[in-house]
Amino acid sequence: MKTKLMTGILAVVFLLSNVENSNACTNFLITAGASVDGSTMITYAADSHTLYGELYYQPAMDHPQGAMREIYEWDTGKYLGKIPQPRHTYSVVGNMNEFQLAIGETTYGGRSELSSQSGAIMDYGSLIYVTLQRAKTAREAIEVMAGLVENYGYYSSGESFSISDPEEVWILELIGKGEGEKGAVWVALRVPDGYISGHANQARITTFPKNDPENCLYAEDVISFAREKGWYEGSDDDFSFSDVYAPVDFGGARFCEARVWAGFNKVAQGMKKYTDYAKGIIEHAGPNNFASNRMPLWIKPDKKLSVQDVMGMMRDHFEGTELDMTQDIGAGPFELPYRWRGLTWEVDSVEYCNERAISTQQTGFSFVTQSRNWLPDPIGGILWFGVDDTYSTCYAPMYCGITEIPECFAVGNGDLLTYSETSAFWTFNQVTNFAYLRYNDMIKDMQEVQKELEDKFVSYVPVIDKAAEALYNSGEQGKARDFISQYSVNEANSMTARWKELGQYLLVKYIDGNVKREKDGTFERTETGMPRSPHFNGYPEWWYRVIVEKTGEHLKVIGESH
């Protein structure tokens, strides 16, 4: 859903792109008490048909007195204005800074009359990256974000933000005040320890405590502003941020909340009762006629989650549910869980929809962050980074203290209109786009390599942690950063090379709709060295029956066939 930024010495340069903002991006938030090792985690999938997957790096910098930072709208590259620089800004790798602070987002839009604010400077993307350069903790990040929109105005529509540090995880929901006003109204809630949360392009915070600053922060006028506009007349206790500023409708439930439901469903029982809601069936009740069958903002998983469990939450096409994208006729004979856009379509003036799953073909990049309070900050934070579709990507560990970006993820190594042999984005897309031809077979081969690589990364990380920590604690902080940089760079580039080999293997194995014969991992040959005749697997029986139902006797064999 994004076009990302890189910093020059005093300015931020944005990549230009027309970006699809609706129904894009998915976040999950994992507290320390809900994780196996005590780390906090957030996830993010940046989904756009015009986004090129890259890893952005902003080094720590000192700035002279009076230095200004230029702000460009993240989605379009439009120049918005300038804001003063602090004397020092922190290094940022992707969406995580050197203090293990991580921020993700999803756009929910909200009330259309609040979507523009003349003279505003801070759009949602710039808000994230400016904050990562200025804040060390989640609470400080909320304070910085609130201050930025108050001082410089808010340029975008409604946003949900995931904010984590090594101790806490927060969800912040914010929307501008529209024309004639300045700034935004917002609410931030700390996710209770031991619980997980999520959001996917639909505002999710409803009621919130008004006198619990340890767990809830909010704009002073978040309720009074709604009263002034005539949008709410009830008591403060009954005020629901989402229901007032971004009411859920069919699309908000079916295309957005359904993704949160699917992720929760992978790690906790009891989500079946929200199936109707995920399907877009919304019930209303109470004096304010708010949606009454919504999912909880957070749940407790059945067991503590590992980083690979959380990666698994990001890999979903509603398998095993009523919305399973592999099971309806649209999946075709090879159970392809993707539908080419648009998201809705019409037949005989009746509107229908495609499902919008967590895993989708147009993902530019995605990540899972880990913030670990038992390690020095540059080593404790890991951005597990991948490009293309979450279901078939590989997440490589990028330590937050690295000072170099792998060539395969580097900005400028190709773009969406320029192919690059060394780009991870193009390498992974080559494999997935070929796999769409015979998906249910090829995805199994892809998942074997995916597991092989991610298992290796996960097993190596504790060893790298220990070595880097020893260097860091001995006073060799520079060498520690060089060490984790070299590790991250080598593993990402090696992963991309391995994926290129996988693509070559799949081409050989599945060319022309056939399947080559294998034995002990080697393609089989005859005694004379010729390739053995491949399997002609054809189509499943149910697909042939569909063809017969649609074509009648058009394809029927008459008489003998030789």
Automatic annotation (TrEMBL):
Family, as annotated: Belongs to the peptidase C69 family.
GO molecular function: cysteine-type exopeptidase activity; dipeptidase activity
EC numbers, comma separated: 3.4.-.-
Catalytic activity: an L-aminoacyl-L-amino acid + H2O = 2 an L-alpha-amino acid
Pfam family, one: Peptidase_C69
Signal peptide: 1-24
Gene Ontology annotations of biological process type: proteolysis
UniProt keyword annotations, A-Z: Dipeptidase, Hydrolase, Protease, Signal
Protein name, UniProt field: Dipeptidase
